[in-house]
Amino acid sequence: MTAVMVEPAMPIVQHGFDLPAGSSVGPYWTKTGTSDIGISAAGMLAVIGTTVGRRAVVHLEQAATAAHWVELTVGTAPNNTAGSGALLRCNVGMTQMVLLTVSAGAWSIGRITGINGTFTLIGSYSTTIALNDVVRVSVDEYSVYRVYINGQRSGPAFRDTTWADSSHRYRGAWIQYTSGTSGANLDNFVSGDTPPLTLVDSDTFSQPTLVGWTTSGGGTLYVQGGEISGVGTPSEPVSFAHRPALPGYPRIMVARMQIRWNGRNPLHSATSVCIRASLANNHTGVHFWTVANQAGIAIYDPSYPDGFLPATGTPAGTPITKWADSAMMEIRGEGTHFSAAVDHNPVLWGTYTEAQAPLLYLQHGVQIQDDSAVSGGGEPPANGDNYQLLVA
After folding, report:
1. How would DSSP label each residue in 28-79?
2. What is the pLDDT of residues 75-110, one digit of tens each?
3. What is the pTM of this model?
4. Rounded Cα distance, 257 and 37, in Å
């Protein structure tokens, strides 16, 4: 089963730039920067002059909110001298906007004030981008930016809350000309609103026992003071609680839970949320785990060294500053791409093969391990609260 993950399309605008060569871009657009941007002989958006700088076309129809996405096809081979790409979160005066820049070896996201203003980097990722690649950038209601290449998540997410208001809803495309070189031509503009995730399961742990959960592992997780707890469970095997499998097959699967430290400072006893589990197949899921000074993305399995397999691209443990009490931890899966966030701020990302984390595994849940009874194990683990499962 091949995973193709994209942000879902709500009402969209589309433009194929199928106009006579050398013409302008038509009545649905306005230009900013140098005016020498138009239609190439191949029917693509292109630079048709040699003025140095950026130029852009902005679609006259606004997105419904500041959470939207833009997709373009790379129409000529990109290079590493001049960039081109999508623009979003643009104001009506076209003086403030966010750019996705694509080049032969990377993509980057940044803010500019004025079309030829300084590019203030939000984030970047080194990857090969080639002729005919379809590149999409989306920003959600939490101002998290994500990039997709040919329908697959590419690299990390980045959060930047600048221009998240209703005055920044225009979107478009841009191309740079510099040092005698033009950025790649662009084709097949498509854009729409980024819908919020849908909450499909939750538990506030307000009942005296775990209801609707299946516990497994070395101990039994339980409710304590309106929170899920693993204090007093064995160090090994670790202890799990899972919810039933989803009835469908979401493209995006997100588990969230609030961290409750309760004054504790665990350095070895981990608390985690997970997705892509299947108890029937002895797979406890892909976990975002945390202690007070480290965090990671892992699959727990005693057959792996140290009992777990970190996501490709992530270390066994990443040093952190202790999250705030009641911070919301999150694990997100899109195809073979997994990312972790705290209070919607991206912190980690990595990948597993489909064999390692099958798309058909649809259970989700919690893991809590108490190392405090082991010599040098430190303090007991954090509890969890306000568990949620969201999908798209």
Report:
1. TEEEEESS-EEE-TTSSEEE-S--SEEEEEEESSPPSSS-EEEEEEE-S---
2. 999 999 999 999 999 999 999 999 999 999 999 999
3. 0.95
4. 48
Reply yes or no on domain 198-391 having CATH 3.40.630.120.
no
In DSSP terms, 73 is beta-bridged to 134, 187
Q: In degrees rounded to 5, what are phi and psi of residue 219?
A: -145, -175
**Would you say 45 and 175 are in contact if contact means Cβ atoms under 8 Å apart?**
yes
Calpha distance 346→142 (Å, rounded): 11
Question: Distance between alpha carbon 188 and the CA centroid of its chain, in Å?
Answer: 23
Torsion of CA 178, 29, 190, 173, to 10 degrees: 20
Which residue, among 264, 275, 270, has the nearest Cα to 332 in the 3D structure?
Answer: 275
The DSSP letter of residue 123 is: E
Tokens at 257, concatenated: 């839970």
Distance of CA 254 to the CA centre of its chain: 10
- Give the side-chain half-sphere CA count within 13 A for 246: 27
Q: What is the DSSP letter of 191?
A: E
- Vertex 209 angle, CA 208 and 210, to 5°: 135
- Cα torsion for 292, 296, 300, 302, to the nearest 10°? -80
Total residues belonging to the chain: 392
Residue 168 amino acid letter? H
CB atoms near residue 202 (< 10 Å)? 13
State mean pLDDT over 30-36.
Answer: 94
Q: What is the pLDDT of residues 228-268, one digit of tens each?
A: 999 999 999 999 999 999 999 999 999 999 999 999 999 99
Cβ within 8 Å of residue 57, ≥6 positions away: 25, 29, 30, 31, 37, 45, 172, 173, 174
Domain with CATH 2.60.120.560 in the chain: 13-193, 198-391
- Quickly tell me which residue has 């400072």 as its tokens: 265
Looking at the DSSP assignment, which residues form a beta bridge with residue 241?
215, 366
What confidence score (pLDDT) does residue 11 get?
61
Buried b / exposed e over 154-176, threshold 16 CB at 10 Å, is bbbbbbbeebbeeebbbbbbbbb
Note the CATH number of domain 13-193: 2.60.120.560
Q: Positive or negative CA dihedral for 191, 40, 181, 28?
A: negative
